[in-house]
Amino acid sequence: MSKTKLFSIFSLLILVAVIVIPRINATKDTTIKYNSKKHTLYQPKNDSIREVVTLAGSISSSQIVNLRFQNSGKLVWVGVKVGDKVHRGQAIASLDKTQLKKNLTTQFNNYQEELSQFNDTQDQYKTTREKFLVTDTIQRILDRTQYSLNNSVITYEITDMAIQEATLISPIDGVVVNIEQPVAGINITPATATFTIINPKDIYFKSEIDQETVIRVKEGQGATIRLDSFSDHELESKINYIAYTPISGQTSTVYEIRFILPTNEQSPQYRIGMDGDADIILSQNNDATVVPTSAVYDDNGQKYVYILSGKELRAQNITTGIENDDYIEIRSGLEANDQVAIIQK
Q: What integer best gives the mean pLDDT of the chain?
């Protein structure tokens, strides 16, 4: 036999050893000698078990508005302060309208002037139009007077809009939570005078849920919320919104999920941005056979436990169900009097 063939056979044996030996070592031991000092016996019991996912989140609101003036000007009136309740349609601040009203008068006068010129032109070419003798030059003259009149109307309307926009109106019922410029008499720009209003009746608890778990929850499903600010108080809630598209900018695929936050007149202490957790029960069995999670082992997808058999621990294949950090449900493979061993490593 040549050296080349010997080398090939030797390499093949090494490859088989590398692949097969680890697999043999990974195979479960079917029996283990029982040692009371190393092995803790556990009697399976009937108990309730549930799988819960905990999501971190915070309080937000579906009605948060930041109001700003459309134009710069002198702030002459601020009718609210932080903490005030406001109603939809209520005026909360105003700019000086003196100059705006004078501009409106000027624009009205311009309109009157353009209208007069428009009528004069129409009268001048009335006979020509009636006899259908309008040339291209005459038509351009008529068009220009019409355009000038239209522009004067538009300018007047824009000036009138500026007067209306000089008063900030709340579009929602809510509470004023921030005023960047609370003092009247100061010249402001749209970027330097923001009024923030929040409707406390529309606050909710929001979180993020990954793509593996989102398919296991639905709107209307119950949840429990615990806020860090009130750690000793749990709030019963429900899921009321699950996004269909993932949140952009995240390193993994996650979706926004919202929970109803119970509120009433006696609970105004909730604030936007308060952090907390929401627990969602994914599955539950109130009459399950359970053992500690640490007593269950996995052999390539086949779950098994060690049960006491005489002076030995014998591997027993099982099927499992609901699992949490502490216990796991055993659906088949154990008898009522079996003792399961927890092996101390």
A: 86
